[in-house]
Amino acid sequence: MTKNLSDESDVRAATAPFQAEFPYERDEEAQVTRREFCNFLGLTSAALFVGAAGFVGKAALDARESVSLAAAPIEGAEALGPNSSLNFSYPTERDSAILIRTADGAYHAYGQKCTHLSCPVYYSRAEQRLECPCHEGTFDAATGAVLYGPPPRALDVIEVEVRDGQMWATGRRS
Amino acid sequence: MRSKPGQTAVWQARLIMLVMINIAQLWILAATVDAALARHYSVLLPLVIASGVCFAITLSIIKWWRPTSRRKTSTGYIRDSR
């Protein structure tokens, strides 16, 4: 029986010509038994448990990491003007960080990951503070402390010092 | 074949419990992510244990909960002929 799709009332019985090439049975697709649904919920439960365990495992690994880090120069820091910022990586290439020179000329450096959900923070020159574009968390430029928004803790602080006219990152603490 | 009213109630109770447990696990996962990013390490272990308990309950509901009209035998559950 060939029947063209005309309206909602006979949608289940419709077998338009193109459907011959795609043997797709609406009735079969729509039928999900209670047992299948229960199994699906069981799989979801397993996935949620594995996800939570994965986060805990990663947190345990992060907590074990050594705190002694090698010093690294920050290229271009000497050309940084007041009330501006510079992105760099420390301690590894994957750990983005931000160096800020505040309006009073002081240097501060922080890990660039927002402590809420790891979006990269940026320096707002107008507001003279660090802001996260994702959920509008803001941090103090001089201390890295949370000013307001959802972040639960301050930004990771990167210790910096000047050696022979060159800015160096020497450590990182959370 | 039409299922007995009591049996339908058991199936629906199972489904509702499974959905509730899944929702609780979603909340636990969100709390775990928040705590991990905030480095509140002390709450992570209780959270993952809670998620594991939820999963164990889910498994028990799927695997072992059966209507009382079914009797366990060496080859599985069979329905009593009443």
SSE topology sketch:
The complex is a heterodimer of chains A (174) and B (82).
Chain A: H1 26-30, H2 34-64, E1 72-73, E2 84-89, E3 96-101, E4 107-111, E5 122-124, E6 129-131, E7 138-140, E8 146-148, E9 157-163, E10 166-173
Antiparallel strand pairs in A: 1-10, 2-3, 3-4, 4-9, 5-6, 6-7, 7-8, 9-10
Chain B: H1 5-38, H2 44-63, E1 70-73, E2 76-79
Antiparallel strand pairs in B: 1-2
Helix pairs in contact in B: 1-2
Description:
The complex is a heterodimer of chains A (174) and B (82). With 174 residues, chain A is of the alpha+beta class. Chain A has helices at residues 26-30, 34-64, and strands at residues 72-73, 84-89, 96-101, 107-111, 122-124, 129-131, 138-140, 146-148, 157-163, 166-173. In chain A, strand 7 (138-140) and strand 8 form a beta hairpin. The longest helix of chain A is centred in the first third of the chain and has 31 residues, at 34-64. The radius of gyration of chain A is 27 Å and the shape is elongated. Chain B has 82 residues and is mostly helical. Chain B has one domain. Chain B has helices at 5-38, 44-63; strands spanning 70-73, 76-79. In chain B, strand 1 and strand 2 form a beta hairpin. The longest helix of chain B is centred in the first third of the chain and has 34 residues, at 5-38. Chain B is elongated, with a radius of gyration of 18 Å. The chains are: A alpha+beta (174), B mainly alpha (82). The A-B interface holds A 34, 37-39, 41-42, 44-46, 48-49, 51-53, 55-56, 58-60, 62-63, 115-118, 152-153, 174 and B 11, 14-15, 18-19, 21-22, 25-26, 28-29, 32-34, 36-41, 44-45, 47-48, 51-52, 54-55, 58-59, 61-62.
